[in-house]
Design goal:
binds guanosine-5'-triphosphate, about 60% helix, disordered C terminus, binds magnesium ion
């Protein structure tokens, strides 16, 4: 992955170290980022929209406490680039039914046969019984190429040196299914079509697909075509609802970024990326991970940790907003809250930024001296049954004792937690009825009162 955006990583580290003022550093970062993106053949309009968004956020947003302004800028870039490459969706590569039949299609030389081998290895390693087949009778060497790959991996192979591709595919499925009980069947096809001839490619694909009814059709795209991938992916996406995409040769081209972002823009799903000639060089495409890598965040582990914590606090905030809207909070939400307060450490201040949250979380005084209390409440909640979690009011005297014993805490600890739960719920109810206003209420000692 060195050539795709190799320079962005350097940009990030020089941005973090730069002695320029924040604004100057932001401007030069964005300027360089634009250059890199355009070099990677990302659509120019997309590049400008991206930089405008980054810039706006960079100048407007205040970083949460515990995060430096420059670090926050990197987080903004991380978010926006992740969005460009598909956002939070992480594809699920696992079979949904058996046999899982994958039909691989793509233009000449895009990397179908290599990808067929990579996928076979991927699924074999995960315990599936994989079979490989080729319908490529166009190139004489095609048969041997895949056969050899199958032997290397140690999976059954089916192919014929001449004949009708749809018919070969049908026989391949029958053979791999009946004779080898394969549960993942991967079918490689001929790529006699060049780019720009999408129609004829799709026609042939249709014939084979009708013959074998694949579970999934995977289009293989060579990333060196850059943003030209858009048209191809778009037609493909319109053609089949069971399609996904593999982008290959990301190791060998500077234009890979253009191909990836173009394909994402069509709404098609990128499932895997190939970044080398070896059979191991395949990975499930996860936009956030991919972007973390191009930004060099893997090297800035602690920064990435911080970002994760911030994302988690977002989750906590969402739960809280729901609780406020409902006028009720569940024991499960409280559990979540305790866990994140513990995890966020100094970053728990992030939560304070959210209106209404500070009053609902444990008082600060209490927090400081009582990491232990949090641990003990977490342990108690973990000892609860589902029924008790759903409705803590059923926790009577004997259940209190059981919970204390089960969690290795005291009966008093359990009572404290239950009091806390009741108090918070009463508060939320009052809040909803308008008896209590969010602003100006200091309930930071709540935890203390409960204890
Ligand atoms: N560097 C690099 N090379 C790759 C990758 N995937 C495939 N290749 C190379 O690309 C060339 C073509 O790969 P094939 O798998 O034969 O492509 P194909 O689509 O099956 O080609 P046809 O069957 O002729 O249409 C080979 O030299 C592969 O080694 C990749 O991810 N990275
Ligand atoms: Mg091939």
């Amino acid at each position: 992955m060195t050539t795709v955006f190799g320079k962005i990583r350097d940009l990030v580290s020089s941005f973090l170290r730069s002695s320029e003022s924040y604004e100057e550093a932001v401007n030069s970062f964005i300027r360089e980022l634009q250059k890199e993106m355009i070099k990677a053949d990302v659509n120019v309009k997309v590049v400008f929209e991206l930089s405008a968004r980054i810039k706006e956020r960079a100048l407007k947003e205040e970083p949460p406490e515990g995060v430096l302004r420059r670090e926050w800028f990197v987080k903004i870039v991380y978010d926006e680039l992740s969005r460009l490459f598909g956002g939070d969706v992480a594809p699920d590569p696992y079979p949904k039914s058996f046999p899982w039949i994958i039909l691989l299609v793509g233009v000449q030389g895009s990397g179908k046969t290599t990808t067929a081998g990579k996928l076979a290895l991927f699924y074999k390693k995960r315990g599936y019984r994989v079979g490989l087949a080729t319908t490529d009778t166009y190139r004489p060497a095609a048969y041997d190429q895949l056969k050899q790959i199958a032997e290397t991996i140690g999976v059954p192979f089916y192919g014929e040196k001449s004949g009708d591709p749809a018919e070969i595919a049908r026989k391949a499925v029958a053979t791999l299914l009946n004779e080898y009980s394969c549960d993942v069947i991967i079918i490689d096809t001929a790529g006699r079509h060049g780019y720009g001839k999408e129609e004829s490619l799709l026609m042939e694909m249709k014939e084979i697909a009708e013959a074998i009814k694949p579970s999934e059709v995977i289009l293989v795209i060579d990333s060196s075509i850059g943003q030209k991938a858009y048209e191809l992916a778009k037609k493909f996406n319109e053609w089949t609802p069971i399609g996904s995409i593999v982008i290959t040769k990301l190791d060998g081209t500077a234009r890979g970024g253009g191909a990836l972002s173009a394909v994402v823009a069509t709404g098609a799903r990128i499932k895997f990326i190939g970044d080398g000639e070896k059979l191991e060089d395949l990975e499930v495409f996860n936009p956030r991970k991919f972007v973390a890598r191009i930004l060099g965040l893997g090297d800035l582990e602690s920064l990435l940790e911080k970002f994760k914590a911030i994302e988690e606090s977002d989750e906590v905030r969402k739960r809280l907003e729901r609780a406020i809207a409902l006028g009720r909070i569940s024991m499960r939400d409280i559990y979540h809250q305790l866990k994140s307060i513990k995890k966020l450490g100094p970053l728990r201040k992030v939560i304070d930024l959210v209106p209404g949250f500070s009053m609902l979380k444990l008082g600060d005084d209490m927090l400081k001296g009582s990491e232990k209390k949090i641990d003990s409440w977490i342990a108690i909640i973990e000892s609860m049954t589902y029924d008790e979690l759903d409705d803590p009011s059923i926790i009577d005297r004997s259940r209190v004792r059981r919970l204390a014993i089960g969690s290795g805490r005291t009966v008093n600890d359990v009572r404290e937690l239950l009091n806390y739960y009741e108090l918070i719920n009463k508060m939320l109810k009052d809040l909803k009825r308008g008896k209590l206003r969010l602003k100006g209420v200091d309930l930071s000692r709540l935890g203390g009162e409960a204890g």
